[in-house]
Design goal:
- With about 120 residues, the chain is mainly α.
- About 65% of the residues lie in helices and about 0% in strands.
- The termini are far apart.
- The structure holds zinc ion.
Length: about 120
């Protein structure tokens, strides 16, 4: 995977993260307070884990879950594991990553996981 693609995905992930956080801020005064408390330079600097502890009971867990996925994808970009399936170790096609930048499973593993959860 080339660096340009990874950089593009990183930017996309940071944008997604900021969007979610902005949405949360606009929906919840309590969340706004938490953000003010943290004094981040940038909304995207906030780690999902930090929010998790403080706000999970206030907000739905859906967005937090997505933030965590985005965070772990960002971590995987940093440690060089981005784009590799967590389950089988195969490369995740770039097309899939473009559609879902925080995908951590290839399509095969994702669909067998969904079958298991059904
Ligand atoms: Zn896989």
């Amino acid at each position: 995977m080339n660096t340009t693609f990874k950089e593009a995905m990183k930017q996309k992930l940071l944008d997604m993260k900021e969007q979610i956080l902005q949405q949360l801020v606009s929906e919840s005064d309590e969340f706004q307070e938490i953000v003010d408390d943290m004094e981040p330079k940038d909304l995207a600097d906030i780690a999902a884990d930090d929010i998790d502890r403080r706000i999970l009971e206030v907000l739905g867990s859906q967005e937090i879950k997505r933030l965590q996925l985005i965070d772990s994808a960002l971590a995987r970009i940093e440690n060089g594991h981005y784009g590799i399936c967590m389950s089988c170790g195969k490369k995740i096609p770039e097309e899939r990553l473009k559609a879902i930048p925080y995908a951590i499973l290839c399509i095969d593993c994702k669909s067998s996981e969904e079958r298991r959860n059904r």
